[in-house]
């Protein structure tokens, strides 16, 4: 017997002892005593049994306590004493019989498992709450012993395993909460039949998977079902609609798919329905309208489509409606204003269009409104001023226009206003300064102009202010310095002028400050050094001058410092060394001088760019030891030092450029340990010694340029391991020896320049394996032997093949004629003999050739590059002849292959016209007979409308000839909007509501009808064209009375018209650059991405059309081929005067190069605001020297900013390249398109001194 039992037994014995000191008493007293003794005897037996049961419960609880980690909450749990009971323990509640009915140990820091708890010893338990602890392990099957349990809460623990099926024995359970654990497996439906009293089922935030069992409707008393934040999949069972008592249904954050069943509409007591963050598809069921008690409807972050049902606007109990992040379309109905109880309305990240209903202003209790990332147009409703309780307003990423309404000043509860990425215009209302609760104001990426109002300084609680990428001008108000709560301030990409206010020094909480790409001048105030919390500082691309303040050394939390492209001068302050957390440091394009300070002291620097300055002295020791470095750009300075000593090993380095400095010494073999290096440039220094063979370990290297130095010795064979290399330049050194055969292993090599060295021996034939080579320069060496014929296999060799100034002998291999892409060939200053191969006639891309100073003889190939070259390209040879002034004509008795071709062409010139005449006479007779017969058939069988008279393809089969004729009133002049080279253009408003442009084609001058089969074939080809910058051709009509083409309608009309009228002022420099870029993209697509390629043939500003956003599209595309499908590339069409390439005057052959010339004219016209006219004739004369770029710019616009000037310079430079008189020297449209899309890095300053000649000399 235990100590507890002994104590209880002793108590009973003492209680049964009778008193002996009383001898006399009455009968009634005796009777009473006997009854009392009998009762006590019986009672003693009862208490003995109860105590044994109590002892069993206490022992069970103490045993479980012993399995847990010590908890202060269970201190009172100790063996019962004479005067104590376990019913008095913390968290234990007993009934009148002393049996445990409730255990409440919520949030008691319990750690352990449940499997040591004797469930059978606590069979009277009604309520068990162990929530908010750290219990782990499985839920034991023995929990079934709690058969009287009504309330079970095990939530917010670390329980795992599955839901035991033994839970089915809890037939009295009303509340079951096991949420916020790590339970897995599927939900079994087996217990559902027994849980008839269950009202609350909470299993949220576990790892449950599988489907929701359809048998869920057996839980007929269920009022709350929460399965959120699991991994439940499958669809929502329609049987849920049978749970008529359900008030809360939470299934969000799962993997549920399928549609929302319409049976959900049967849950008329429902107050909360949350299905967010699933994979639900389909539309919102209309039956949800029945849920008139619903207060919370959250369906966000699914894939729900369709429109928002109007019926939702009748659910007047709604307090929170979140449909964001779906695929909803359509419009917002004004009846949404019926939902006057709404406090939250989120429709963001959908595809909703139309205007924002003014009726939202009726929702006066609204606290949060999110309509961002949709397609809303129109204005911000002034009625928003009624939303005086609104705290958050998200309207960003729409197409909202107009101004910010002044009524917004009434929304004094706002703490967040996000209007970015719209088309808002006007100025920032000064009354925004009244919204003193604002913490975030985001107006970036709009068209807002004017100045920043000083009243903005009243927003002293503001943490985030973003006004970047607008059209703001004027100075930065010093009142911004009052906004001491600011964490992020971004005013970048505007036209702000003046100085940086010293009051910025008050913004001591600021972590991000960007003023980049403005017109800010003056010096950097020293007060910026007070911003000790700053992480990112970007003042780049301005006109800031003067020194960098020493106070910058206080910015010890700075990770990014961007000061590039300013006019900063002086030396870097030594205090910069204090910036030990600095990761990115950009100083490129300033006038800084002096030595580099000790940077990277903290070992955090990853990117240091200080090129195009005047730095001198050595690389600092701290930079040598900076192993975190990934990019180092110090080119075009005057940095000195020994290259073998000033650099360390950089395991993370990706790119380094120290070109055009004064480094000396040798290249360190330790570079071979920088295994992540992709680009290594040491061009134009004074480096000597040999190329370290360790370079062969740089397996990621793509660019190696160590040209213009004093390197000597051989090329290490180990460089053949650099299989990723695409650019290898070793030119202008003193390298010698043989070219290693291992060069053939560089399979990705595109650019190889070994010129200006002392290499000897043969050109290795293995070079043919470098089949991606575009440029091969081996000139200026002592190479000997013959030219390997294998070079002819380099099919991508296009830019140049230069083998000049060597000692090459033998004949020129005819295989070089396979280099179809080659543009420049230089074989001069060698000892080549024999004739120039006739295969060179096939070098159609060749634009420049030089074979002078050789021992060649015989006729020149019949190739334009040879025939148009100057005499200097052929001098000092043995006996070359041909049609070049200064060379003797070839012997007429010796007919070259080219001469034979000319003879054949002459015969063809005579014979073909004769055959053509005969064929035309025969064909005319046949056509006349067929047409007359067809006409009689038509007249007999077609009266009035007849679809067989015409065809409309790829548009709308219901639109027939009479529809369009009717819409245009038989081509009435009032619908006339323009005229191109091939017909007049009309605007047609069709009965369907569609607006199209109709081009009525001019009839052939000779009266000839369009050949229908050819016409259809060309049309079908053109309607397959898909490009955003080519006007969509919908189809055509061909009819005996007239023929026309149907195009999409472009609202602003032609570029020529826009440049002539007031709209030109809206076409700013950036928009103009984008117009040119769009035309280039379209031509590149036509020339390079279509098979076969298309040539426009008549490109001019009249057939460049603009939409409302000034997006440019090419029209009249392919019309020439439609009208003359047999013309191929030989053309008698004159094109548009002023845009026609000059070579058409004598070749009459239309090629892509003709389009490129026309593009050049258009590009200049866009920049000048008018046709370049006489400028075109000046370009090839000495008069071009006196023409400056600034004199060509459209004077109607303000002068370009620095950022805009880069766009202008690149556009004009490319335009001039396209206007080259030699067609083959013009760049391809693919090249032009790529250059216009790439980053602009043209450093030509000052801008007012840039001449046309400079731009013509640029190699881009």
Question: What is the topological layout?
Answer:
Blueprint (H helix, E strand, L loop, with lengths): L2 H14 L10 H41 L24 E3 L5 E5 L6 E2 L14 E3 L4 E4 L13 E3 L4 E2 L15 E3 L22 E3 L21 E3 L21 E3 L6 E2 L13 E3 L4 E2 L15 E3 L6 E3 L12 E3 L4 E3 L14 E3 L6 E3 L12 E3 L4 E3 L14 E3 L21 E3 L21 E3 L6 E2 L13 E3 L4 E5 L12 E3 L4 E3 L14 E3 L21 E3 L6 E2 L13 E3 L4 E5 L12 E3 L4 E5 L11 E3 L4 E4 L3 H4 L6 E3 L4 E5 L12 E3 L4 E5 L12 E3 L4 E3 L14 E3 L6 E2 L13 E3 L4 E5 L12 E3 L4 E4 L13 E3 L4 E4 L14 E3 L4 E5 L12 E3 L4 E5 L12 E3 L4 E5 L4 H5 L10 E3 L15 H45 L19 H7 L8 E4 L3 E7 L5 E7 L10 H12 L9 E6 L4 E6 L4 E2 H6 L8 H21 L14 E3 L5 E3 L4 H5 L20 H4 L4 H17 ...
Parallel strand pairs: 2-4, 3-5, 4-6, 5-7, 6-8, 8-9, 9-10, 10-11, 11-13, 12-14, 13-15, 15-17, 16-18, 17-19, 19-21, 20-22, 21-23, 23-24, 24-25, 25-27, 26-28, 27-29, 28-30, 29-31, 31-32, 32-34, 33-35, 34-36, 35-37, 36-38, 37-39, 38-40, 39-41, 40-42, 41-43, 42-44, 43-45, 44-46, 46-48, 47-49, ...
Antiparallel strand pairs: 1-2, 61-62, 62-63, 63-65, 64-65, 66-67, 67-68
Helix pairs in contact: 1-2, 9-12, 9-15, 9-16, 12-15
Average residue-wise pLDDT:
85
**Alpha plus pi helix count:** 17
Secondary-structure-derived class: alpha/beta
Give the name of the CATH architecture of the domain at 632-881: Alpha-Beta Horseshoe
Q: What is the C-level CATH assignment of the domain at 632-881? A: Alpha Beta
Terminus-to-terminus distance? 102 Å
Radius of gyration: 44 Å
Overall shape: it is: globular
Helix content class: 10-25%
């Amino acid at each position: 017997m235990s100590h507890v039992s002994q104590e209880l037994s002793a108590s009973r014995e003492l209680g049964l002892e009778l008193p002996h000191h009383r001898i006399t008493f009455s009968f009634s007293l005796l009777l009473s005593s006997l009854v009392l003794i009998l009762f006590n005897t019986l009672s003693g037996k009862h208490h003995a049994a109860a105590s044994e049961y109590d002892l069993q419960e206490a022992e069970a609880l103490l045993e479980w306590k012993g399995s847990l980690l010590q908890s202060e909450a269970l201190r009172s749990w100790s063996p019962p004493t004479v005067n104590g009971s376990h019913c008095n323990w913390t968290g234990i509640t007993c009934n009148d019989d002393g049996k445990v009915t409730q255990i409440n140990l919520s949030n008691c820091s319990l750690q352990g498992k449940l499997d040591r708890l004797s469930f059978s010893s606590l069979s009277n338990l009604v309520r068990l709450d162990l929530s908010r602890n750290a219990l782990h392990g499985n839920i034991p099957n023995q929990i079934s012993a709690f058969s009287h349990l009504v309330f079970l809460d095990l939530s917010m623990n670390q329980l795992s395993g599955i839901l035991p099926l033994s839970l089915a024995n809890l037939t009295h359970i009303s509340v079951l909460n096991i949420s916020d654990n790590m339970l897995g497996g599927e939900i079994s439906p087996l217990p559902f039949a027994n849980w008839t009293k269950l009202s609350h089922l909470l299993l949220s935030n576990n790892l449950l998977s599988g489907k929701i069992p359809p048998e869920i409707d057996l839980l007929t008393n269920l009022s709350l079902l929460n399965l959120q934040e699991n991994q439940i999949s499958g669809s929502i069972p329609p049987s849920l609609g049978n749970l008529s008592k359900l008030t809360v249904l939470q299934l969000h954050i799962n993997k549920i798919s399928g549609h929302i069943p319409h049976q959900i509409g049967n849950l008329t007591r429902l107050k909360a329905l949350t299905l967010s963050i699933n994979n639900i598809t389909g539309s919102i069921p209309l039956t949800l309208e029945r849920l008139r008690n619903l207060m919370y409807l959250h369906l966000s972050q699914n894939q729900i489509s369709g429109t928002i049902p109007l019926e939702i606007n009748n659910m007047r109990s709604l307090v929170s409606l979140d449909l964001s992040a779906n695929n909803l379309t359509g419009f917002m109905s004004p009846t949404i204003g019926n939902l006057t109880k709404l406090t939250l309305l989120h429709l963001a990240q959908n595809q909703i269009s139309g205007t924002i209903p003014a009726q939202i202003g009726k929702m006066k209790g609204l606290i949060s409104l999110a309509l961002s990332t949709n397609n809303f147009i129109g204005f911000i409703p002034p009625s928003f001023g009624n939303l005086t309780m609104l705290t958050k307003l998200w309207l960003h990423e729409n197409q909202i226009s107009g101004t910010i309404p002044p009524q917004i000043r009434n929304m004094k509860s706002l703490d967040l206003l996000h209007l970015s990425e719209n088309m808002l215009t006007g100025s920032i209302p000064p009354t925004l300064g009244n919204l003193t609760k604002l913490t975030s104001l985001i107006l970036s990426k709009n068209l807002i102009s004017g100045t920043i109002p000083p009243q903005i300084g009243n927003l002293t609680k503001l943490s985030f202010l973003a006004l970047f990428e607008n059209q703001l001008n004027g100075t930065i108000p010093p009142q911004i310095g009052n906004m001491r709560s600011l964490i992020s301030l971004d005013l970048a990409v505007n036209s702000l002028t003046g100085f940086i206010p010293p009051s910025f020094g008050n913004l001591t909480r600021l972590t991000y400050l960007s003023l980049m790409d403005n017109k800010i001048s003056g010096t950097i105030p020293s007060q910026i050094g007070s911003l000790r919390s700053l992480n990112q500082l970007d003042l780049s691309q301005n006109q800031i001058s003067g020194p960098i303040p020493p106070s910058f050394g206080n910015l010890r939390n700075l990770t990014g410092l961007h000061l590039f492209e300013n006019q900063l001068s002086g030396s870097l302050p030594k205090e910069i060394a204090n910036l030990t957390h600095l990761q990115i440091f950009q100083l490129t394009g300033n006038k800084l001088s002096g030595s580099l300070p000790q940077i990277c002291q903290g070992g955090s620097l990853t990117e240091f760019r200080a090129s195009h300055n005047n730095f001198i002295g050595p690389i600092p020791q701290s930079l040598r030891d900076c192993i975190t470095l990934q990019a180092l750009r110090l080119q075009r300075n005057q940095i000195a030092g020994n290259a073998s000593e000033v650099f360390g090993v950089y395991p993370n380095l990706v790119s380094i450029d120290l070109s055009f400095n004064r480094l000396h010494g040798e290249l360190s073999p330790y570079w071979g340990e920088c295994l992540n290096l992709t680009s290594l440039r040491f061009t134009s220094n004074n480096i000597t010694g040999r190329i370290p063979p360790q370079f062969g370990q740089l397996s990621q290297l793509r660019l190696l340029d160590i040209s213009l130095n004093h390197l000597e010795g051989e090329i290490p064979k180990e460089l053949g391991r650099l299989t990723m290399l695409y650019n290898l330049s070793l030119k202008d050194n003193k390298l010698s020896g043989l070219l290693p055969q291992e060069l053939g292993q560089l399979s990705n090599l595109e650019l190889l320049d070994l010129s200006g060295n002392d290499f000897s021996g043969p050109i290795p034939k293995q070079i043919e394996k470098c089949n991606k080579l575009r440029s091969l320069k081996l000139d200026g060496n002592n190479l000997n032997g013959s030219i390997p014929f294998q070079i002819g296999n380099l099919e991508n060799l296009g830019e140049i093949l230069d083998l000049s100034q060597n000692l090459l002998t033998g004949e020129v291999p005819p295989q070089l004629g396979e280099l179809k892409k080659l543009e420049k060939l230089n074989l001069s200053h060698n000892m080549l003999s024999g004739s120039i191969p006739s295969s060179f006639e096939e070098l159609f891309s060749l634009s420049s050739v030089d074979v002078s100073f050789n021992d060649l003889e015989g006729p020149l190939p019949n190739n334009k590059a040879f025939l148009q070259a100057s005499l200097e390209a052929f001098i000092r040879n043995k006996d070359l002849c041909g049609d070049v002034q200064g060379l003797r004509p070839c012997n007429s008795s010796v007919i070259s292959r080219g001469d034979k071709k000319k003879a054949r062409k002459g015969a063809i010139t005579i014979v073909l016209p004769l055959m053509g005449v005969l064929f035309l006479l025969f064909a005319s007779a046949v056509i006349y007979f067929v047409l007359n017969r067809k006409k009689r058939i038509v007249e007999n069988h077609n009266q009035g409308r007849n679809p067989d008279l015409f065809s409309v393809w790829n548009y709308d089969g219901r639109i027939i000839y009479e529809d369009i004729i009717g819409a245009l009133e038989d081509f009435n002049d009032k619908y006339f909007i323009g005229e191109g080279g091939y017909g007049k253009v009309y605007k047609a408003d069709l009965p369907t509501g569609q607006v199209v442009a109709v081009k009525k084609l001019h009839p052939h001058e000779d009266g000839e009808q369009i050949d229908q089969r050819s016409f259809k074939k060309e049309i079908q080809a053109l309607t397959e064209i898909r490009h955003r910058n080519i006007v969509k051709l919908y189809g055509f009509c061909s009819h005996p009375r007239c023929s026309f083409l149907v195009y999409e309608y472009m609202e602003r009309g032609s570029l020529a018209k826009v440049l002539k009228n007031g709209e030109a002022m809206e076409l700013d420099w950036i928009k103009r650059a984008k117009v040119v870029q769009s035309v280039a993209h379209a031509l590149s697509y036509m020339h390079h991405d279509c098979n076969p390629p298309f040539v426009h043939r008549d490109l001019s500003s009249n057939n460049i059309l603009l939409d409302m956003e000034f997006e440019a599209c090419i029209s009249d595309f392919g019309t020439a081929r439609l009208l003359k499908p047999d013309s191929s590339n030989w053309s008698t069409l004159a094109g548009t005067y002023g845009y026609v390439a000059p070579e058409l005057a004598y070749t009459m052959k239309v090629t892509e190069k003709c389009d490129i010339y026309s593009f050049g004219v258009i590009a200049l016209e866009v920049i000048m605001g008018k046709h370049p006219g006489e400028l075109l004739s000046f370009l090839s004369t000495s008069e071009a020297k006196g023409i400056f770029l600034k004199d060509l710019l459209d004077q109607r616009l303000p002068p370009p900013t620095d950022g805009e000037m880069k766009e202008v310079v690149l556009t004009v430079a490319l335009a001039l390249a396209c206007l080259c008189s030699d067609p083959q020297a013009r760049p391809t449209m693919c090249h032009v398109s790529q250059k216009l899309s790439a980053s602009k890095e043209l450093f030509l300053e000052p801008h007012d001194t840039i001449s046309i000649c400079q731009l013509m000399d640029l190699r881009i």
